[in-house]
Amino acid sequence: MPLIFYYDLMSQPCRALYIFLKMTGIPFESKEIALRKLEHTTDEFSRINPFKKVPVIGDSGFLLTESVAIFMYLCDKYEKFDWYPKEVKARARVNEYANWQHLNLRSNGAMYFRTKIITPRLTNKPINEHELEKWQGRLEDSLGDLENVWLARSSYLGGDHLTFADLLGICELMQPIAAGYNFDREKFPRVHDWMQRVKNATQPYFDETHAVPMRMRTAILKDQKSKL
Ligand SMILES: N[C@@H](CCC(=O)N[C@@H](CS)C(=O)NCC(=O)O)C(=O)O
Known about the structure:
Elements: E1 3-7, H1 12-24, E2 28-32, H2 43-48, E3 56-59, E4 62-65, H3 67-77, H4 88-123, H5 129-153, H6 164-178, H7 189-201, H8 205-209, H9 211-226
Parallel strand pairs: 1-2
Antiparallel strand pairs: 1-3, 3-4
Helix pairs in contact: 1-6, 4-5, 4-6, 5-7, 6-9
């Protein structure tokens, strides 16, 4: 029975897992759960994830939520130790980044996206520019940490080679970029170079996975230009 993967490609951790599944060739059955259509709020999906969130995997009836736990499970089960090293200290570096990012790059990038895209649509009110500025500042604090801590220490987020920490990181960073955030390569040169390395190493899946978010970015930038 193939692995079942419940996802929406507008979700950052879902994109990270999707790229990983494609890169590793682990066979899976796709179950798209459209967040915009509130498919995650149905009774049927609540039985799959009581928290009503994606991603989720189902492995012969074993349901697992939480992207980091899913990565760990799949890497162990399918012995993908290049993505999640077996050696304890190397593994601890990947765990360290995965734990750090929730309340830093993820929450700040996601709040930038929410303030700019989701809240105005839900409330039919204009973007709260003061809030947006606040989340942009916090996002840039997290980018500063990537630049001056994580990527100053090693060339990838979880060590000296690509691991699932990099997939989590780059997919989170693409969320504010999808919302029109202009990443400044002069200010964050290590982050820029790391992004290029991760993108190049994960093609064609990186671009395939980010097609919808990048179309969103193009539409937002066009709209911003027309209002100038
Ligand atoms: N900590 C969870 C977060 C999952 C999560 O927040 N998923 C979002 C999409 S990125 C979701 O399903 N949101 C729907 C909702 O909260 O209504 C993980 O890493 O898997």
